Amino acid sequence: MKLFSGIGGTAPVQASGPVPPGLLEAFDAYETALLTNDVAALDALFAPGPHTVRGDGTHLLVGHDAIAGFRSGRTVIPTRRVTGVLVRPVGDDAALLMASTRAPAGGATGLQTQMWQRVEGVWKVGAAHVSLPARPAPAVDESIWRVVGTPMVDASGRGPLDGATVAVKDLFAVAGQKTGAGNPAWLAGQEPNVASAPAVGALLGAGAVITGIARTDEFAYSLAGQNAHYGTPPNPAVPQGISGGSTSGPASAVALRQVDIGLGTDTAGSIRVPASYQGLVGLRTTHGAVSAEGVLPLAPSFDTVGWLTRDAATALRVAEVLLPAATATSATRTLALPTVDALATPDVARALQTERERLVAEGLLPPLEQADLTTEVLEEWFTAFRTLQAHEAWAANGDWITAHPGTLGADVAARFTAASTITDDQAAEARAVVGLARTVLADLLEGAVLVLPSSAGGAPARDAGPDQVEAERAGTLRMTCLAGLAGAPALSLPRLRTADGRPAGLCLLGAPGSDRDLLQLAISGGLA
Amino acid sequence: MKLFSGIGGTAPVQASGPVPPGLLEAFDAYETALLTNDVAALDALFAPGPHTVRGDGTHLLVGHDAIAGFRSGRTVIPTRRVTGVLVRPVGDDAALLMASTRAPAGGATGLQTQMWQRVEGVWKVGAAHVSLPARPAPAVDESIWRVVGTPMVDASGRGPLDGATVAVKDLFAVAGQKTGAGNPAWLAGQEPNVASAPAVGALLGAGAVITGIARTDEFAYSLAGQNAHYGTPPNPAVPQGISGGSTSGPASAVALRQVDIGLGTDTAGSIRVPASYQGLVGLRTTHGAVSAEGVLPLAPSFDTVGWLTRDAATALRVAEVLLPAATATSATRTLALPTVDALATPDVARALQTERERLVAEGLLPPLEQADLTTEVLEEWFTAFRTLQAHEAWAANGDWITAHPGTLGADVAARFTAASTITDDQAAEARAVVGLARTVLADLLEGAVLVLPSSAGGAPARDAGPDQVEAERAGTLRMTCLAGLAGAPALSLPRLRTADGRPAGLCLLGAPGSDRDLLQLAISGGLA
After folding, report:
1. pLDDT of residue B76
2. In angstroms, rounded to a whole number, what is the distance separating the alpha carbons of residues B212 and B146?
3. Is A246 one of the annotated active-site residues of the chain?
4. Which end of chain B is more exposed for a tag (fewer CB within 10 A), N or C?
5. What's the order of all strands across the beta sheet hosting A2-6?
6. Residue A334 in 3-state DSSP?
């Protein structure tokens, strides 16, 4: 048997016919260039032009330029040896070459298939398909989870949630476990909780099991999910995108089908934003409807318990366990707030409008009315919301943060520093505006369902610049604050897409107490 | 742009030249056959003969027959749709086709590359490379772990194990956690432990953290790792092989680099066998040298605490924490027991002999002597060992097993049933033989290191027949029982290979108390 002798050693060659001259030498040059990261040599070995293609199962790059761009940005260089080569000549000037590879130290096997063609006497790769050896997985993805079990906590009863699995945001007390709040210094100072939060206990009593305790942004004071200590959980709907937060770990665990239910909190969008970014169902409940006992507070005037699921039916089963008995109100009007819609990116705003009109036209939502809310009023309300939220967040966490300097991630630290400057007078003024807004919104929402975007756009890229992140955040907060101001339930449904295909949520916001009605609307309309 | 219209819907086709007639129709027939599991049609679409090839990064199948055999044995049928097709014609009668695919419900992307060739007017696939969409990973691999954290338990002090991560076999008490013993019915009846086992506490005090509690065979009464309730942990060194047990989960966690140290127990090989099968370092300690307090007993006459690592230096750091101060004995003789070697498979026996002679010749081990142990004596000792082990195992677990019928996996249940029949008289007789063997072995091991195989062969296949498993087990137990009979330490080192490349352990068995000497021998000889 012929032997291939290259940079990684020798390997047997099995061919279906005479191996064309120069082919194995060209392949050797390719392997050498790859393992030494000789980008110029690799570029020269790939055929020029728009038809050259390289794929690896996750990404398909078409055109020499796209492939060259990928190579120049690559920072991890493969280490491997070729363990076998198959050659399948096609005529005199083309051959398919398949090389089996193996990572060092008994590592995983890989396979690369290359279509080589001889153009003007020189062998070039026209198409390549690479199966990369899988990297060893850690015992647990620490960007998603802090503790996990099979399950971690067994059900304590039977009921509508029999067999359902739950990821609990690391703000809830779970008996025998500490509460970590997304910050390692905080965690280090905790003792195990003696009792579980009532919301957790109710799920266990209804037959659910707790798979584990999942990540939160630090003290829940972010909408991004980019925890400085534990990383950003994956967003399977947008592989290059952030997860959204602060209920970041539970959302990713639900999206990855690791659990059925993500139990979290929503003060200013912390359920709705990750639901929107990951294409999930997310319910923020009516303020005060679900006990927040045993849950670390952020801003009690707005804090609510909520949950993320992959479908509305599961979300309703949770609602039947955690929420008071259903009221029998049903909306007779669909509301739109053009001022709010205009804060979304144009593609999301357009998708929302189209979907909202379709739902009304098909009778899945009641007749549409445009409501009037000026930009000035929205801005005044939003400022009051943020001021009061910040004041309460500092009241809840300021002492600990002051005593533990340097322990917060930069963005959360900056937010708390700003929060620390708010005076009691400013907070009192904000509280008055919030009270007014709540009254106005109560009138507006009476018998109505407000349909707005859950977030200004889809998930920003993990490496998006601060301006882009801040623009998304600023628009989103002006949408999400309305439920907080109203003390109202808000249900994010995976109904929209950005122009480039990222999911975005359509949000149903109802009068306080209408939580189950929103879920019923979603279910009867086939919306999730 | 041209459209491909097939069973999964339509997809754009991008070609570098005119698409040869009939090619897309043939590809459509292929997709239809694949998604409907029409094995005959798939066989007909692959070119006949020995050069047809199909690879997926893990396996490469060469020849039409091998591919057909794979298809006929496949039980999971892909569900996916084609999202894009690239065609790269090569002459008139050949074309490379690359199809991007996507799993349902926003699932992962895949890529398949096919070399099509027209033979006598009919298009056939001559080569195929498939990147399968990755399956969603669970939150935790329940074949390896029961509970896991980041970490699960923090260090309580600093020392030689600073930052080292530990998987604790589910037989050790960990404060705040239950002890599961590899059986869900047992686990359900447990309360969380108030205190950790001293061995666990000592590791934490020396700076190690506990990543989690890892799987054991039920009540540690098996060498296979094939837990009937939680599955068989992966063996990364032998992907189709069993893990070995009963310290199965810790071994896999170490081999997968999820932790540095696997803390376990060894009664009749439960550290040495998984070390052997997975290419790890595994130390069974001198009987009584490490406290077994807080560890569920199997057979106290032989039970020992031990650990698995990827290198001998880490194993020595653990020894410095858990074992008494070093004695200063050093072996002056290397012993071989031809009777025992002969129980290994011929390839392992040969590999052992070659390696042992090399080590002696290079002065890494002291001069070699052949010791005399007849098959009859070995068989008598082994029978006594098994009898006493079984009697003690029933004494430790019989009441619970009797009270919980039907809760054990079949093989472990059968073993306990057999154990239940052993009379006190039989046990007393066995104990006398064990005492005699211990005296004989103490003489034999004085100033010596016995070099033998850690297991009769490499890891059996997961689907190996019962005869093969029993043959491997029978040979292995006659090797591993010697350390138990002697109360002696035994160190398995990843020095051997089976004929087909599976790892197997070379075992150093020393006089009681020589645990650290064995590790020093391994380190100074560069053996692991």
Report:
1. 63
2. 7
3. yes
4. N
5. A2-6, A9-15, A81-89, A94-102, A109-119, A122-131, A53-55, A60-62
6. strand
Residue A136: pLDDT over 80: no
CA B88 to chain centre: 44
pLDDT attached to residue A137: 84
Taking an 8 Å cut-off on Cβ atoms, the answer to whether A126 and B88 are in contact is: yes
Whether A245 shows a pLDDT value over 70: the answer reads yes
What the block records as the tokens of B320 is: 């410095």
DSSP string, A112-159: EEEEEEEETTEEEEEEEEEEPPPPPPPSS-TTTEEEEEEEEE--SS-S
How far is A208 from chain B, CA to nearest CA, in Å? Answer: 16
pTM for this predicted structure: 0.87
pLDDT digits (tens, 9 = 90+) for B402-415: 999 999 999 999 99
- Top residue of A113, A152, A213 to mutate, by most chain B CBs within 10 Å, is A113
Distance, CA of B140 to CA of A139 (rounded, Å) = 7
Cα–Cα distance for residue pair A81/A105, rounded to 1 Å = 11
Measured in residues, chain A has a length of 528
Q: What is the pLDDT of residue B107?
A: 62
Question: Active-site residue A156, yes or no?
Answer: no
Indicate the pairing of strand A145-153 with strand A209-214. antiparallel
Q: How confident is the model at residue B437 (pLDDT cuts 50, 70, 90)?
A: very high
Helix (H) or strand (E) holding B352: helix B346-361
Judge: A139–B138 Cβ closer than 8 Å, yes or no: no
Instruction: Give catalytic status of residue B169 as yes or no.
Output: yes
Cβ neighbors of A445 (< 8 A, separation 6 or more) are A335, A486, A488, A509, A510, A511, A512
Apex CA B41: angle with CA B36 and CA B45, to 5°?
Answer: 120
Interatomic CA distance for residues B496 and B507, integer angstroms: 10
Torsion of CA A460, A466, A471, A476, to 10 degrees: 60
Closest alpha carbon to A214 in A266, A263, A164? A263
Question: B402: left (phi > 0), else alpha (psi -120 to 50), else beta?
Answer: alpha
What is the torsional sign of CA B483, B489, B494, B496?
negative
What is the percent of chain B with per-residue pLDDT over 70, rounded to a whole number?
Answer: 97
The catalytic residue among B222, B243, B246, B252 is B246
- The rounded radius of gyration (Å) of the Cα atoms in chain A is 27
- Please report, as a single letter, which amino acid is at residue B278: Q
Question: Domains of chain A by range and CATH?
Answer: 2-131 (3.10.450.50), 145-524 (3.90.1300.10)
Q: Is the ipTM of this complex over 0.90?
A: no
Lowest mean pLDDT among A405-409, B53-57, B84-88, B248-252: B53-57
Contacts of A80 in chain B (CB under 8 A): none
Question: Coil, strand, or helix at residue A97?
Answer: strand
